[in-house]
Write a structure and sequence with these properties.
This protein is mainly alpha-helical and about 350 residues long. It is built from 14 helices and four strands. The chain has helices at about 15-30, 45-60, 65-80, 85-95, 110, 120-125, 150-170, 180-200, 215-225, 235-245, 250-260, 265-275, 290-295, 315-335; strands at about 100, 115-120, 145, 145-150.
């Protein structure tokens, strides 16, 4: 890249059309499918198309789109790395200063447990902060001499998370970018398409039959994370979806909420929400997990006074909603007794 001394103005030249098309394809796949596929034509096109796609994503100035693009590239990296040979995975990991080595260096015990790699616990911990599944908790891992043992798939997943942070850092570039006209038109198209797909649903747009102020802290936090475009874990999605449909929100409203998510896929989201709501599959309507389960998965942000008196987020919602209605009714009675004089 440095030897080419490529300038943004150069991209208007026909010789870069194939590279620009592949960069555009990366962004379109991120927008439509939530994952960048592997369309390797040749090294030059593939290598150059990535920084150009990053530049175009930055130029959208849309935080949600940039997060979605980063996640889409991350999925591609994961799909490649999980099939990659051991030496290449270690080589890539060391680019991020990981202290990693093949598991067999520790002898038969690693082989018997079907591990492929061992990773220093510090490098392990810095990449699992967003993971909610119990298997990623250090207490549930096989650790020896300060190294956490991993399968090939787990190493690929952690390395993909490192790549995601690397890409998001690139996408956080500051300054004003003025691309050539042909690129500016493509960027504008992405912005319009993504704004249309994501919608602009906000908390106050939830149906009036749902009392949003009665949400327990865990569900409010999950909602805010989704509304801001953040990626949340599978168990978090299930908990939030089952909670919302249980308190009366329609499948369509829940799907609209998830449009803000950086990895939104309407076909997948529609099936999953309908399944949880009991409209697909076994026709069983699911309820959210109990408070202790949410705590186990790290979803509980910390209990408040009502939390300490209930064991389920739906119990919290019912109690808080009932208290709010009683308070409103009392205020109305007091106003009738002592009307304001204007």
């Amino acid at each position: 890249m440095e030897k080419l001394d490529l300038k943004i103005e150069d991209l208007s030249s026909p010789e870069y059309t194939a590279i620009l098309d592949r960069a555009t394809n990366r962004l379109e796949k991120a927008l439509v499918d939530g994952a960048v596929d592997d369309q390797w034509i040749n090294d030059e096109i593939e290598i150059l198309s990535f920084p150009i796609a990053v530049m175009m994503a930055v130029a959208t100035t849309d935080t949600h789109f940039k997060r979605r693009y980063a996640l889409a590239e991350t999925k591609r990296v994961y799909n490649i790395l999980k099939e990659e040979r051991e030496g290449k995975v270690i080589e890539v990991a060391k680019k991020f200063s990981w202290r990693i080595k093949p598991a067999e260096l520790n002898g038969a015990s690693a082989h018997e447990r079907s591990y492929d790699y061992s990773l220093h616990f510090v490098d392990f911990l810095k990449n699992i902060s967003g993971f909610r599944e119990k298997k990623w908790k250090l207490a549930n891992r096989f650790v020896q001499d300060g190294y956490v043992y991993l399968s090939g798939y787990e190493a690929a997943r952690l390395l993909a998370e490192e790549v995601r942070k690397h890409i998001e850092k690139k996408l956080d570039a500051k300054g004003v970018l003025t691309p050539p006209q042909n690129i500016a038109e493509r960027i504008d198209r992405f912005k319009r398409a993504f704004a249309k797909q994501r919608g602009m649903m906000r908390f106050e747009e939830i149906p009036k039959s749902v009392i949003t102020d009665a949400f327990p802290p865990c569900m409010r936090q999950l909602h805010d994370e989704i509304a801001s475009g953040r990626h949340i874990s599978h168990i978090s999605r299930f908990a939030l979806t089952s909670f919302l449909v249980s308190i009366g929100m329609t499948v369509e409203n829940v799907i609209d909420l998830f449009r803000s998510s950086s990895d939104f896929n309407e076909r997948v989201a529609r099936y999953q929400v309908a399944h949880i709501a009991g409209e697909k599959g076994s026709r069983t309507k699911y309820t959210p997990p109990r408070c202790d389960t949410l705590q186990t998965h790290g979803i509980c942000p910390g209990p408040n006074e009502i939390c300490r008196t209930v064991r389920h987020p739906l119990a919290y919602y019912r109690r808080k909603a009932r208290g709010m209605k009683e308070k409103a009714a009392y205020s109305e009675r007091e106003e009738d007794r002592y009307p304001l004089v204007h």
